[in-house]
Amino acid sequence: MEDKKRTTKKQNRKISRRDFIGGVAAAASAGAFSLLPSCANIAQIMTIKRKRPNIVFIMADDHASHAMSCYGSKINKTPNLDRLAEEGMLFENCFCTNSICAPSRAVILTGKYSHINGILDNFTKFDGSQQTFTKLLQKNGYETAIIGKWHLISQPTGFDYWNILPGNGEYHNPAFFNMGKRKRYKGYVTDIITDFCINWLKNRNDNKPFCLMCQHKAPHRKWYPDKKHAKMYEDTNIPEPETFNDDYSTRSDAAGEQAMSVEHHLTHEDLKMDPPKELAGQALKKWKYQRYIKDYLRVVASLDDNVGRLLDYLDTAGLAENTIVFYTSDQGFFLGDHGWFDKRFMYEESLRMPLLVRYPKEVAPGSVNKDIVLNLDFAPTFLDFAGIAKPADSSATGMQGRSLRPILKGSTPQDWRTSMYYHYYEYPSMHMVKRHYGVRTLRYKLMHFYYDIDAWELYDLQKDPNELNNIYDNTAYADVVKELKTELRRLRKQYGDSDELTKKFLQDYLKKHS
Ligand code: CA
């Protein structure tokens, strides 16, 4: 023990701590504490145990980064999220690998792409017997909990405590499954989830480090605000986004054939009233946008308040210093951009996830990062901070993402990715966004729509950040297309995706939904 104590190499220190804690846990559970050498060592063990960081993972549902003031929102203010950004790192290029609710959640838990973890769409039951980061944390002495939206159909595994919404849940007086037992609660869902989280933190086993996944329903459709924010923005006109009247003239048919336009696809329940009869055309579209976006932002305002409430609790409980706080959303969202609501497309507003990370011990306050990071990286990051080895890529339990810890410490590894792979599968289905996969680099995005279409799109994000000009057929970009196709093939191979697999998934899907 003394030798271990004197070791200066960080790696060795990590291993010895881990091994030692594991041994102590085994001794404790066998009721064999008397076997330990001395009280001084027990005190030391407790110090080591306390040093392993806690994790609070706060995830919103469909919260686009351009509805956060720390990301430069032109339409709202989010003071509590801004506080998190000021105290930690803001990621400008965090992307999801499949922009839809259940798939993103499965990627986060497993650190694997959809075609490996099995959740390609919102209809499939998550196989809870597979490896997840919370199972590994649990096995290594963490107390784990998930509260709020789960959305993976099967019962959660890898959690000491779970209290989840059925499906998408409800905003007012929602029901929850508390460890499998259904109960309805009075109040507003975002407040209730936060209350449950704070109560869990108060009553947890404080001899263990913890991982709490606080997963909000907000601001998912159908955007019912709470009483406190119901009249917010009442006398304000929310500016429309620059691309509100995108006519899709340079794109493939996929953009024109979706069913998620503000103009045509918002329902009576989304709008909560019938449009004035005298409105038509552009005036009606504008009216619908105001109805939709105001409710969305009201729901976000409550979310922001509740993030503040949870951060305040971490402060008052003395937990802020040793707790890693993540704030993210399962994907982005179109806020009238390109005339749409919803997500699914690989276009920027849907692809980008907000990501704020605070950990005072390792992350410089107010830092901003531009590297390409993915939801695939979250699981390996948590394991890294907990001192647990990441299961290798090649094994059945392997994780395909990479730890963000060096980036969070301010030093991006030389060989960090400069491109990312995306694949969306849920079609034909709600909102009718066609199947597509693609590659995004720091400058370009190449997308391929397939199944009932065979179309490519290319965007130069430097010259055309709003993705209005598809330049796939522009001969000046022939070399870029060639390079990106090579990169796309390389990524598909690296992550184990292929045409054969894509064909198989499509056949399975059509059989299931015919
Ligand atoms: Ca979502």
Brief synopsis:
The protein is of the alpha/beta class. It has 16 helices and 15 strands. The chain starts with a helix and ends with a helix.
Rg from C-alpha positions?
23 Å
Total beta-strand segments: 15
On the 0-100 scale, what is the average pLDDT? 92
Binned strand content: 15-25%
CATH superfamily of the domain at 54-225 and 291-416: Alkaline Phosphatase, subunit A
How does CATH name the architecture of the domain at 54-225 and 291-416?
Answer: 3-Layer(aba) Sandwich
Are there runs of 5+ residues with pLDDT below 50, and where? 1-37
Q: Can you put this structure into words, describing what you see?
A:
The protein is an alpha/beta fold and 514 residues long. Among the domains are: 1-51, no CATH class; 54-225 and 291-416, 3-Layer(aba) Sandwich (Alkaline Phosphatase, subunit A), CATH 3.40.720. 34% of the residues lie in helices and 16% in strands. It has 16 helices and 15 strands. It has helices at residues 2-6, 10-29, 39-51, 79-87, 101-110, 114-117, 133-139, 189-203, 253-256, 268-271, 281-316, 348-351, 378-385, 405-408, 478-495, 499-512, and strands spanning 54-60, 89-95, 143-149, 161-165, 175-178, 181-184, 210-215, 323-329, 352-358, 367-369, 373-374, 419-424, 436-441, 444-449, 455-460. Strands 1, 2, 3, 4, 5, 6, 7, 8, 9, 10 and 11 form an 11-stranded mixed β-sheet that branches. A 4-stranded antiparallel β-sheet has the order 12-13-14-15, with helices on one face. A hairpin with a 5-residue loop joins strand 14 and strand 15. Helix 7 (133-139) runs parallel beside helix 13 (378-385). The longest helix has 36 residues, at 281-316. The chain is globular. It starts with a helix and ends with a helix. The model is unreliable at 1-37 (pLDDT under 50). Bound molecules: calcium ion. Calcium ion is lined by residues 61-62, 101, 330-331.
